[in-house]
Design goal:
homodimer; 710 residues
């Protein structure tokens, strides 16, 4: 074991201590007035109730799938490894799946728990000062960001060694693929269910509240307002937590599989352990970055966050250099890692360009709002589609460069892309902290509104909320590009595994010939799955939202005192309806993604002359392309719509005579329509597509014996 | 030469006579009142002015590209054929390009000319009876439908023999690929420019007329109304005419290239001439089908059209059987052709399901309109995305089946898909006639409105207009699936041609390995190009529409008499603005598609170790997948939005108490917003994507020496 490997346990322990320290710091703060505390408690209970029911559903599916995987792999994948019987491999894969699923669930819970606990405290802090509010929100966000990445690192490491990584390092990565599948399986449902919940509540509450009844956002008279606030926590926090947990886990495992070839050639285990060590250094770099965020009253919170991010980036480069020097001794691979880090910086600027109102795209959407909702949406769609150019170029150039460096290093081109992915993901804990910052400030804003805080306090949380919107968009750009970079490493891992099962060693199965009819049709179906999944996810939001609208209308009709402010609406019922609908609606799209590739592979397996494993490879590769392009449209388009609306609300849009077009105007109403469309795109379908891309990789990785041996 | 080949010249001559007969029949009819005649003349002049300017622009580009192609192919592709010098091949390809471009332009002109001439006559006929109106609209549509397909058949045949098809049948198909490129080059610009024109005028006129000023659609007080009517002719008729001309031409040429291998093995030229003969029989079958359309006053016009279509389908099967029996003597290939014909029937039902208000999808959009434009658009997007399932399944299953039959036939799997494509395209003249039926009735409706016809007459043309909407949607479904079927044949043709240039014979270059980094990145960029192209096309509509809105507002401000009905608006100025903007905006997206694959190929060509021709193959194949899925969303989603609006206007939507929600209601306004978004999707970007898919195939086919020899 190389000495530098100690960075993994050490950074893991430090990170956990750091997170505990932050959590205590946040939790000991005041929750504000009793009214605010009460609202905070209601949100926590409702979020917890949703998560409990969601996890129960997911747990049932997980156990069923673990058993199926165990049996199938046990029956079909048994001949692959010497010294391990078929049964051994089967139960190990099933158990790995369950452990991955469990950890992913815990990650989601952590994300939700800390965020909910930080909401009211951030709201209370905002009554004191902006700096205080930023501190609470960022620390709260950092708790989940760091705990989740630490959990991923520790989880992969422990299961790797538990499955004989020390003695059989060339076998163990194949045994732990189940861990990645379990993690992404849970992440998909968490992200989907949470995403449906949060946006249905948001859209429903807004339409019936703001549009029909003319009451402000987050007004306590709206029966759906608690559901809306809960949504931010279960969707953005729990969902994103599970998402990034599985990203880091799956990509670690994929990179370890790619390292096996170099290990086999050199006998140096460093090639397999390298991804874990890079991740360790990344956590430390991110941690130090957090210390550099000291918001000043007269400074934009975004500048403070950016400062910390660039510190984390700079330290990541140093950490990468150290790891490469001690473990691989190959500077070409350092170059590949730097490519990944550079990609993460570039995409941040690109995302800001497309989603901040200072730049042309958002301004053009706001301008188009002057002629109504139709032109607003036409322009927003055009902007969203256009963002694929930047996304594709960043991913494409990074892949070509890092592959070339991997080639030059003498190892393998694909290993270069793996190192680039690892480099990019070094700052993951920091980015995740920024991301959770968003929903915390959003909720603080809502709590202050409900508790009737004055306009001065609202101004502080409004400012934070706008920053939160940007950080959320940045994270999505980051997650998307990292998914794109990881794609190549993940399907090289798939091909290696197919080769391993077919021929007993890596590298012999490496052609995916899309000119074969079944491979081409597989690719066609993969892009279709992306559209169908998005369709179902969007429709789920629409259906759930209309249930909420009906319920709110019913309550308003049944008790006119609610709107008058004399009686209290039945929040719990709205929460309950959203919970049930959200959970019901997540099943179909979730199963589509899990079963889609399996069905294609198994059906093609039974047609003579077809190479089913190759067709599934095309599903994976072209599905990834389709998914990332669609996600780019949805995430950036949604963010641009949102900020075009915010731009008008800020009084930044002027008519031909230079008069400000304000809130409530025709143009503003048009912009609200655009934002409402953008919501399910950017917060339900878009983020779920990241997970879809990863899930395609992990499900095919685990299930590939089905397409070969069956 | 097989005797059956006589079907080509004979059917060509008969078709031209048939079209002349129909044209005379239409032209001798009354144009109605002097007022109607006047409006008809204005429309014709404006459409002609647009086409003249558009064709001037396209001509300049075409000549430039013809020269570039000639020089490049002359320099690079020269070693490929014995007996022909490099220079010979170069100028032949360039000339073929010009001839193809010219024919495509003529096809567009025919489409526009006949449609415009039929508009006023259809309007006048509607004042007599529904049957008469249907007859005029269908005959007008049939003139262009049949002339265009005859032109395609004759054009390909003539250039094939002019380039030595009789003596060197294995070489000639390679020499005429320029014809296909020229045709699709012009088609792309015709479809794009016309599509931008028509939808910008439509959106602009509607927003400022219906929404802002509260005047009805096609009201003569609206200065943009003539531009709107012109748009239907230059977009839907001229654009679609050029589109289907290049489809039939490119797919014929591709199928002939695939036939070379079988010719080389058997020495029987029938394998190369087969696609032309099938097309000849298809024209005859479609012609007979037209005779079976006899609308009855008490019958839906759609039923009459469907009857004729099924006759054409049945006769096509017979024609196919005859051709296969005499030319190939292989019943497996007959089966493949039937698969194609069946696909065209299935997609018609699927399209009807997704775009007619009797079925769930459109109803769900109309229902969602009750809660406003945002939910209308969310639901419409979901429906549009969902349609990719049916499109992908129809294409996928047809490809797998026809490939299998091709394999079983002993020729080649890809030849099976070629026969399927030929089978599907047999009814092309009929479908194109139905398609042109749409804009003719649409315009007749507008002319009657402008000329102040009574409500009884409006009712007749309104009914026809709704049928026209459906036929337009059907054609798009048909064009999309045929593009998908053709895709496989076209890129097999590309691979054959690469093989030919690289190794001097077909079939040696047949792997497109998407696991190679440059191939994967090519595929990624291809899907990006689809999004970017759509973005620019949509944005062009938005930008042009806002110019029109400004102009209309200016006219209303400058002369209040316009809205009062006392003074005449300046139609010409609105037309002029639309023309200029439409032409300017078509350049960038057009060049993107032409230059995109070339740039990718040439850049990759200069990177050592990359297989540029393979990367371009991936651009072609995955770009096709991305384009077809996107087009499915846009065409069907747009159709569904349109008909959801029409459903509400028809009084088919009811509230909870069973009361009809009528025109002008909140729900109807929401549905109008959805329709306005759907317009540029279904009439600008969507149809242009069909051409994009074909153009990707023809441009790579012609330019492939660049990626190999350069």
């Amino acid at each position: 074991m190389p000495v530098i490997f100690w960075v993994v346990p050490v950074s893991g322990v430090i990170t956990v201590i750091f997170a505990i320290f932050l959590a205590r710091n946040v939790l000991k703060r005041s929750m504000g007035t009793p009214k605010m505390k009460e609202i905070g408690d209601i949100i926590f209970q409702a979020a917890w109730a949703f998560l409990k029911r969601q996890y129960t559903t997911i747990a049932i599916y997980s156990v069923a799938i673990a058993i199926i995987i165990g049996v199938l792999v046990g029956l079909l994948g048994g001949t692959e490894v010497e010294g391990l019987s078929a049964l051994d491999i089967g139960w190990r894969t099933g158990v790995a799946f369950l452990v991955g699923a469990l950890c992913s669930g815990v990650a989601g819970f952590i994300g939700m728990y800390i965020a909910v606990k930080s909401n009211a405290r951030c709201a209370a802090a905002a009554q004191k000062s902006l700096t205080e509010a930023v501190n609470v929100a960022l620390r709260g966000g950092a708790v989940s960001g760091f705990l989740i990445t630490a959990l991923s690192l520790i989880g992969v490491t422990v299961i790797f060694f538990a499955y004989g990584g020390a003695t059989n390092p060339e076998i163990a990565p194949h045994l732990i693929v189940g861990f990645g599948f379990g993690a992404s399986f849970v992440a998909l449902f968490a992200q989907l269910g949470g995403g449906i919940y949060t946006k249905a509540a948001d859209v429903g509450a807004d339409l019936v509240g703001k549009v029909e009844s003319g009451i402000p956002e987050d007004d306590p008279r709206n029966p759906a307002v608690i559901a809306d606030l809960v949504g931010d926590n279960v969707g953005d926090c729990a969902g994103r937590g599970a998402d990034l947990f599985e990203s880091t886990a799956a990509e670690n495992i994929g990179a370890m599989i790619l390292g096996i070839a170099a290990y086999a050639a050199t006998g140096n285990i460093a090639w397999i352990l390298f991804p874990l060590c890079v991740r360790g250094f990344g956590m430390i770099a991110s941690m130090i970055g957090i210390f550099f965020v000291r918001a000043k009253e007269n400074e934009s919170a975004m500048s403070a966050l950016n400062r910390g991010y660039f510190v984390a980036i700079a330290l990541s480069v140093v950490g990468l250099a150290v790891t490469v020097y001690f473990m691989l001794g190959n500077w070409w691979l350092f170059g590949a890692g730097v490519v990944g880090i550079a990609a993460s910086v570039v995409i941040i600027f690109v995302t800001q360009y497309y989603t901040e109102w200072r730049y042309r795209p958002v301004r053009s959407i706001a301008e188009a709002s002057k002629t109504g909702p139709a032109t607003n949406i036409i322009m927003g769609t055009a902007v969203g589609f256009e963002t694929t150019l930047a996304t594709a170029l960043v991913i494409g150039v990074s892949l070509l460069l890092s592959f070339w460096m991997g080639d030059m290093s003498g190892v393998h081109g694909a290993f270069g892309t793996a190192v680039a992915t690892m480099g990019m993901l070094m700052t993951c804990p920091y980015v995740l902290s920024m991301d959770t910052f968003g929903p915390i400030t959003d909720n603080a804003n809502g709590i202050n509104e409900m508790a009737g805080a004055g306009p001065e306090v609202r101004k502080v949380t409004d400012r934070l909320d706008a920053v939160g919107n940007t950080t959320k968009a940045l994270t999505k750009g980051y997650a998307m590009v990292s998914a794109g970079l990881a794609a190549f490493l993940l399907f090289q891992a798939y091909l290696d595994r197919v080769s391993f099962i077919k021929f007993g060693e890596s590298g012999l199965y490496n052609i995916v010939d899309i000119a074969r009819i079944e491979v081409f049709v597989g690719a066609l179906l993969a892009v279709m799955i992306v559209y169908l999944f998005s369709s179902w996810a969007i429709k789920a939001v629409g259906k759930t939202a209309s249930k909420i609208i009906e319920e709110v209308r019913r309550q308003f009709r049944a008790d006119p005192g609610i709107l008058a402010g004399t009686s209290k609406p039945d929040y719990a019922r709205a929460v309950d309806i959203t919970t049930r609908a959200g959970l019901r609606e997540m099943i179909a799209p979730g199963l589509l993604v899990v079963l889609g590739p399996i069905i294609i592979g198994v059906v093609f397996r039974f047609i003579p002359g077809y190479d089913a494993a190759m067709a599934v490879a095309a599903v994976l590769m072209v599905g990834t392309i389709g998914g990332i392009m669609m996600a780019s449209y949805m995430n950036n388009g949604g963010g641009a719509w949102d900020n075009a609306k915010k731009m008008i609300e800020d009084g930044q849009l002027k008519d031909d005579e230079g008069k400000v077009i304000s809130k409530g105007s025709f143009a503003h109403q048009a912009a609200v329509v655009g934002d409402t469309l953008g919501d399910p795109l950017k917060d339900t379908a878009g983020p779920s597509l990241h997970v879809l891309v990863k899930l395609l990789a992990t499900v095919t990785l685990v299930m590939c014996p089905l397409f070969i041996v069956l």
